[in-house]
Design a protein that fits this description.
This protein has four helices and 16 strands. It is an alpha+beta fold.
């Protein structure tokens, strides 16, 4: 996982390809705000209105993530979606199409904040593209309640790795472990995201997907709180090279992971 603890801030442009934002589309926005507000201590502000019913989650007054209302007829899943920085979202969207991906939403303007699109890689995993104007992304990291890592869970990393490398210019670093299919994506030598190939272990009813990890102070307390708030623990806490990790789902089924940093 990334070792970077301090983001560039909301008014500094991210290196293209850097994960810069995460957003959740849900059916019941009020109940979703209540769940994550209790779990992570987030507060919420509305907007931008061009995205429909949408709120920004804040921690200590600084933006952390976004949440929007998912129309009943939408084909998008109830899921957390990472956004990757771009200096020209229209050009990046064209590259996505040329490399075998699809663009489901946009590109479109999000008021004065910037310009965005929602796309999918050739395997169907959904991700966002963000071209910041007045706002460039998550304004705080390295503390509980903030996103710390994004990882693509997919069939295998070889083909889809070429897609992300051609779209965002990543360097790839395979994990040298027998029977473990994992690529770390790097920009300027810095790890920014991961691709995890799980083969046939991928759920048939879901397909490949991006998973967001959020930092927590006490993973045991967090899992108890998830259950108490109506969510589910999908994979209990276990040790990893990056700390104690668990996978959970909110009351609508949006899956995410939580990690307690060992430092």
């Amino acid at each position: 996982m990334t070792e970077a603890r301090d983001p560039a801030g909301p008014h500094a442009r991210r290196v293209p390809g850097t994960p810069c934002w995460v957003s959740l589309m849900a059916h019941g926005l009020d109940a979703t705000e209540e769940f994550y507000g209790e779990l992570f201590g987030w507060e919420f502000r509305p907007g931008p209105q061009q995205l429909g019913p949408y709120v920004r989650a804040l921690l200590d007054g600084r933006e952390v993530a976004g949440m929007g209302h998912l129309p009943p007829d939408s084909r998008l899943p109830v899921a957390w979606t990472p956004y990757f920085a771009s200096v020209d979202v229209d050009r990046t969207a064209d590259t996505v199409r040329l490399r075998g991906g699809t663009v489901a939403v946009g590109p479109l303007d999000a008021a004065e904040a910037g310009r965005m699109a929602i796309a999918a890689d050739p395997s169907g995993a959904v991700f966002g593209i963000w071209q910041g104007s007045a706002y460039f992304g998550t304004a705080i990291s390295g503390v509980p309640g903030t996103p710390v890592w994004n990882e693509l869970v997919t069939y295998d990393t070889e083909g889809v790795g070429k897609f992300y490398k051609s779209v965002f210019g990543y360097e790839e670093e395979p994990v040298a472990s027998a029977g473990f299919d994992y690529l770390t994506l790097r920009l300027d030598g810095r790890p920014v995201a991961g691709l995890h190939g799980v083969g046939q272990a991928l759920p048939r009813d879901r397909g490949p997907y991006w998973q967001t990890y959020f930092e927590v102070a006490d993973i045991g307390a967090t899992l108890r709180q998830v259950s108490g708030l109506g969510g589910r623990v999908l994979r209990p806490a276990h040790d990893s090279p990056h700390g104690r990790v668990a996978t959970v789902a909110d009351p609508e089924g949006a899956e995410f992971s939580v990690v307690q940093d060992p430092r």
